[in-house]
Amino acid sequence: MTRKRRRLVLIGGAVCVLAIAVALMLNAFRDSIVFFNSPSDVAEKHIAPGTRIRLGGLVKTDSFVRDDNLRIHFEITDGSREIQVAYQGVLPDLFREGQGAVAEGALDGGGVFNADTILAKHDETYMPKEVADALKKTGHWKDDSAKKAALPVGGGAQ
């Protein structure tokens, strides 16, 4: 084998090993790449109890209940399905009913999502794309951009 051919074989082998390594990494991260799953996604995927996921959607109105020992229960919905969430701890300041939230944790055997972290939407205009798409699909989307455009710039009459 000539020196040039040996070099080409070595480079080709290195490229193959790198391609296999990248394919294995992408396969391992396949389910983790999604920022969160909606309640409909959880039902469709039949996620096993104990599997850590992120659950996102809107906090259902009139579902918030505070127990003893700072235990909190509420429902996250995407407009078509709801999942009961249980959380113990301090909630973010922006957390409230009717607003977007993402919970990190795992489902238990009874279908309750036990969260160990709650993330709340950070301002009035932000909504994760997946939540907006799910709400549009179910007809629960509220587009306030037309209302905001109609407001005077100064904030009201003088």
Task: Put the structure in a nutshell.
The protein has 158 residues and is of the alpha+beta class. Helix content is 31%, strand content 25%.
Secondary structure blueprint with pairings:
Layout: H1 3-28, H2 39-45, E1 52-59, E2 65-66, E3 71-77, E4 82-88, E5 100-107, E6 113-120, H3 129-138, H4 145-150
Parallel strand pairs: 4-6
Antiparallel strand pairs: 1-3, 1-5, 2-3, 3-4, 5-6
What this model shows, in words?
By secondary structure, the chain is of the alpha+beta class. The chain is built from four helices and six strands, in the order H-H-E-E-E-E-E-E-H-H. It starts with a helix and ends in an 8-residue tail after the last helix. Mean pLDDT is 81; it is low at 145-158.
Name its key features:
158 residues, 4 helices, 6 strands, disordered C terminus
Describe the biggest sheet?
A: 5 strands, mixed, barrel
Number of DSSP E strands: 6
Shape: elongated
Strand content: 25-35%
Seen as an oligomer or otherwise, the chain set is: single chain
Stretches with pLDDT under 50, minimum 5 residues: 145-158
Q: What is the CA-based Rg, rounded?
A: 23 Å
Structural class from helices and strands?
A: alpha+beta
Terminal-residue CA separation? 89 Å
Mean pLDDT level:
81
Q: Number of helical runs? A: 4
Strand order within the widest sheet? 1-3-4-6-5
The percentage helix is 25-40%
| SSE sequence, one letter per element | HHEEEEEEHH
